[in-house]
Structures are given as C-alpha cells and as structure tokens.
Amino acid sequence: MSAALRVDVLTIFPEIFRPALSTSIPGIAERKGAVVYRLHDIRDFATDSHRSVDDRPYGGGPGMVMKPDPIFHCVEAAEAQDPEPAFRILLTPQGERLTQKRVEDLALKRRLLIVCGHYEGFDERVREGLRPCEISVGDYVLSGGEFAAFVLIDAVVRLLPGVLGDADSAKDESFTSGLLEYPHYTRPSEFRGMKVPEILLSGDHAKVAQWRREQAILRTRLRRADLLPEEEKEKG
Ligand code: ADE
User: Does the predicted model carry a pTM greater than 0.85?
Assistant: First the structure.
C-alpha cells in the first residue's frame, strides 16, 4: 500500500474535527492507514497574553481580521513536523470553487495543509506570504472554514486507494463520469404503490446498463444541463 496521505488542519476549533474525522469514511480511511490527520490550534501560536488570533481592520470598518503572525507560526511549526512538503490550502469564499476534478488532483498529493479562517477573513499577508491554493466549497459564506475543510477532507479521503469497499463505487457516481447519477432502487420491488422499473428486475445486464446511461443523461439534462457532454447538448 502507498504511504498515507498526511492532512494537517490549522484551526482555532480543533475540537470540532476529532469526532468528525473519526466517523464514517474519514474514520475508516484513518483506521485503514490511508490517511493521517494532524490538528493544530492556531491559538497556541498567539503571541500576546490574551492569546488573540484576530484584530480590528486597518482603515476601519466592521468585523475582525485574522492576524498573520499566529497563522505563519502555526504553519511553520506544522510543516517542521515532517520533511514531506505540504500543499497549502486556504479555505475562503474567495477561492476557486471546489470540483470533483480538483478533489481527484488533491487525492494524489502526499501532504495537504489546510488553514481554516474566521471572522471577516485573513490579513492579506497570509495570501502574499504563504502562497496557498485558495478553495471555496460554494458561493455562500460560512462563519468559518472548519466545515469547508471537512467537506474537502471527506471528498478527498474517500478516493484514496483501499478506502471504499467496492473498487468501483467511486467510479460510477455523480460527477466522476461527468453526469449525475442514475436513480437507484433496492427492495421491496413495490413500496406504497411505487414500483421499481421493470427493466431493473429483468436480469438483462446490457439493457440495465443502457437504461442507467439514458437515465443519467436525462437527469443531468433536467437538473444540470451545464454538465452535459457537447454531443448531448447538441441533441437539445
Ligand atoms: N469560509 C467561509 N465561507 C467559505 C466557503 N464558502 N468556502 C470555503 N471556506 C469558507
């Protein structure tokens, strides 16, 4: 098995992560040795007696800004723990929007270092000095980067080799094929008058595969026409 992905998370709320990262697929990934999580409390690197990590913005205005020095010191201390160079990620609504393609690319890295922001944002020198890849999990504003970090970690670690039981289960799903997923059914074959499509009960694998492909295209056309491959868009 290849070496574990190391994920360093820098946050002022490390306590949020432990239970979340120990549960479900992120926890399985860790127990299987596919990933190692390291949590770092940015507040441990505050330099004043109040342990402050934020301050008022120069030039005035509402809100508080995350100070650069605790973040720089925390990044440097985390990176010094392991010689493997870290791919630095800053979670912010100003970043590039996270896609499955970016997730696949991150799953190939050996070490991710994720900085979670709070308040009005980061002092600009965090961007300037650390040169991180900036990622947003969507066009809305969270009160902090912690849940965005969890979204990113969950999406990445489930792709690591050996994490999902069925080798194909990550390949067949929405976005990976470029289409949304076809509808799924399990037993019973009839529930409250709603029937499973006959074709799925037919045992004809070729027909089932064709039906699923058609349904995936139909669903994508109805819900996310922007994702359709060019040849399908032309069919209108
Ligand atoms: N922090 C606050 N909002 C965020 C978002 N949408 N994505 C990533 N980090 C964030």
Answer: yes
